[in-house]
Design brief:
Two copies of one chain form a homodimer. With 254 residues, chain A is mostly helical. Chain A has 13 helices and no strands. Chain A binds a DNA duplex (30 and 30 nucleotides) through helix 3 and helix 4.
Chain lengths: 254, 254
DNA sequence: TTTGAGCGTAGAACGGTGTTCGACATCGGA
DNA sequence: TCCGATGTCGAACACCGTTCTACGCTCAAA
């Protein structure tokens, strides 16, 4: 009986303690206590997390912790982790601005749009992983697709050419960004004491060239001979080159 | 008391049972009991697992289980899961055959090599994920790189062009294969009763076209107008198109 | 004003993952 | 014969996505 009483009293006792605690700190009063936890807040928090620690840090638990709650709470607003990923790349794509088509500059305009997408991917390291797994027919990606299609058609590209080139470009942008993210991120190295950013980059490149030159000439003659060409491509030269190739019109027009 | 005795005897009792069991089946005798667990066996088993259940099924525990052992045993032969992934794509790349360069057919030869690589990726669904994360300077990938470089140079491509085009091609092949794997794999749908493979494919394609046509014309005029071109590309037409664009020489030669 | 139903919150738990530790077995060579 | 090196592997740790469940809150009807 006593047990029963105690057990029964536990409940109201807890409430009593909670009430006292609530009395204790009325700062941040009124309604800040709610923090209503909307989809927007979740997506926003996840993006901040990616920017700071990379996409692999985006865990239901960690996103929830950043919102000062538990992982289970997120599932009231988002079906899956996969759905969250879709929302993330949707949000990301919504920041890409589509220009007014100008037939004289369609190539530059396309490079601009693809560059925006690439920069978004690079801003959130590793998110390109989600981009490749995401539903390819999300509304935001379709919006970019439509924009690129408009630019290409305005430039005089045949529809089938435009469709395939855009598809390939999207795939390439994601793959390029993913590789770039992995190359700079994964905390593997950065050994050695002092760093000067530019010198570090040069050293990296030089070391790759050197390693390639160490290969046996009998098996890798061309790799050794053109090691420099193979490992060059700082900045986004390779990126620009590839898109330039992808969007070369077939008929020698322009 | 009996319990205590049993517990103490457990150890030698187990050994006793093992001995009897060993007596029981001397078939596959001599030394088959060892099953020495080499790197080759691990890689081979992992590849079989991918072929049957996809890359996401490749878990240290599951690979070990397929080898009738525990996960910890693998770490005596492979540093990480990442290292295992590298070995897997290395093994995969080693099956790509490089042709003798023939300057007259360099384009077809390159398409052939890239097609081999693509088919390897498609044979092991999802392994392209590992290909994108893998060390880009593995010996096997360098071998393919050297082969492609040889073909392109034989075809008269400038070295810088060849280097960048090959890099882009590798990225694209991986991305294309990954998307193709994800599209057919992930068990999302396949609902509905009876399946005829060809009809199913047609239905899929038709449904995508239909969905695109449902978009508001005001926002997606070109997408609606060219829905068919956007969603076509069965077989590997898109693949061939993209590589064709990537390897078009700049100077209008050939 | 009271009640009750609904909804968002969140702790606990389940099954799975990569990886490490440490005791154990086995084998090659002195 | 013994002994050290090497390989094996159960147990455990920390983390993951996801589900279950109870709990608190809000708001509209009674």
């Amino acid at each position: 009986m006593a047990e029963k009483n105690a057990k029964r009293g536990d409940d109201s006792r807890q409430r009593w303690i909670a009430q006292i605690a609530a009395l204790e700190n009325p700062p941040t009063p009124a309604r800040s206590r709610k923090a209503p936890l909307t989809v927007e807040r979740i997506v926003h928090t996840a993006l901040e997390l990616i920017e700071a620690e990379g996409f692999e840090a985006v865990t239901m638990r960690r996103v929830a912790a950043a919102l000062q709650t538990g992982a289970a709470s997120l599932y009231a607003h988002v079906r899956n982790k996969a759905a969250l990923d879709d929302l993330l790349i949707g949000e990301l794509c919504s920041h890409v601005m589509l220009p007014e088509p100008d037939p004289k500059q369609w190539q530059a305009q396309i490079m601009n749009v693809c560059g925006q997408l690439r920069d978004q991917f690079l801003r959130y390291p590793g998110i390109a992983t989600a981009a490749m797994a995401a539903t390819p027919t999300s509304l935001e990606t379709l919006r970019i697709n439509e924009g690129l299609l408009t630019l290409l058609l305005a430039g005089g590209a045949p529809p089938q050419f435009a469709a395939w080139a855009i598809d390939a470009a999207y795939l390439y942008v994601a793959a390029y960004s993913l590789e770039a993210s992995l190359r700079s991120r994964p905390g593997n190295g950065e050994e050695g004491g002092d760093h000067d950013n530019e010198h570090e980059h040069d050293n990296d490149n030089d070391e790759i060239v050197e390693r390639l030159r160490m290969l046996p000439t009998s098996l890798f003659p061309n790799t050794v001979a053109h090691a420099r060409e193979l490992s060059t491509g700082d900045g986004h030269e390779r990126f620009d080159f590839t898109l330039g190739q992808l969007f070369r019109l077939p008929s020698s027009a322009e």
